[in-house]
Amino acid sequence: IYELCCPPPGADHDIDIIFVHGLGGNGLTTWCTRGNPCTIWPETWLPETFPNARVLSINYEAPQSKWLSSTDPMNVFDQSKQLAEQLSTRQVGAYQKPIVFVTHSLGGLMVKQMLIHADKTGNKPRLQQLLTNTKGVVFYAVPHQGSRAADMVEYFKRILRTTELIEDLTALSKSVVERNTDYKEIETAYNIARYSFVETQNMPLSEGGLKVVEEWSARHGCGHNWTPISANHIDIVKP
After folding, report:
1. Cα separations in angstroms, 135 against 57, 97, 99, 109
2. What is the pLDDT of residues 59-73, one digit of tens each?
3. Could you tell me whether strands 226-229 and 134-140 are parallel, antiparallel, or unpaired per DSSP bridges?
4. Distances (CA, A) of 137 to 16, 74, 80, 195, 197
5. Rounded mean pLDDT of 198-226?
6. Residue 23: which residues within 8 A CB-CB, separation 6 or more?
7. pLDDT (tens digit per residue) in 32-56
8. Are 83 and 75 in contact, with CB atoms under 8 Å apart?
9. Among residues 78, 230, 29, which one has the least CA distance to residue 141?
10. pLDDT digits 0-9 by tens, 145-187
11. Vertex 71 angle, CA 68 and 76, to 5°
């Protein structure tokens, strides 16, 4: 977990804002600006608006293919449990401090599963604090209903050696539907706000030329709380 910024020495933070990257990303480069790839915008811009916030960025292994990893990455369910434990050790949710998650792609599914895990683990107060103090989740191009692009990749899984993370993204899969049902109950019970941003551009031809997450999947369950962004799946989090 990277700490991107926090209040000056002697001052305590009053909110945790936590960024969670998606498939093929990492906790730093995912959040770089397009104009200056050396600028991590949450680190540079958020302190101006939220001077008393602690801004964290989660980093987890999320390769699309086993060719890109020396080990087989854990699936969404197992990774989310590990992330919940890591956040609780950083006292995220302690002392009734509110939490807002900002997520991209797979990261949104990871946070949903993490909060479901916290809800079902009633014998661990620190995980319960993580859930009860979560006030909102921002979803950037998150495939709530799965992705047709993931379906296509699955056709070539033997060649591409896709990981379980890809398999968990296939459109309207059993795990996707169950996660949506469980999370909706939690969202309602704990009054967790949500807002979604939807990609409108295809990826470059060199990267498949597809729209990775279609509008119907990205804005699922959001009502009117969503905004289309003129960007592709990667650039949507690179202002």
Report:
1. 17, 10, 6, 17
2. 988 655 333 334 455
3. unpaired
4. 12, 23, 15, 7, 11
5. 85
6. 62, 63, 64, 105, 106, 165, 166, 169
7. 999 888 899 999 999 999 999 999 9
8. no
9. 230
10. 887 654 444 433 443 344 555 556 665 577 788 888 999 999 9
11. 90
DSSP strands (E only) in the chain: 2-5, 15-20, 53-58, 99-104, 134-140, 193-199, 226-229
Rounded to an integer, the average pLDDT of 95-118 is 94
- 88: its two tokens: 């609780």
Tokens 């990257």 appear where? 21
Which amino acid does the sequence have at 160?
L
- Say which residues have a Cβ less than 8 Å from residue 214's Cβ, sequence separation at least 6: 147, 148
Hey, what amino acid is at 209? G
Distance CA 216, CA 219 (A): 6
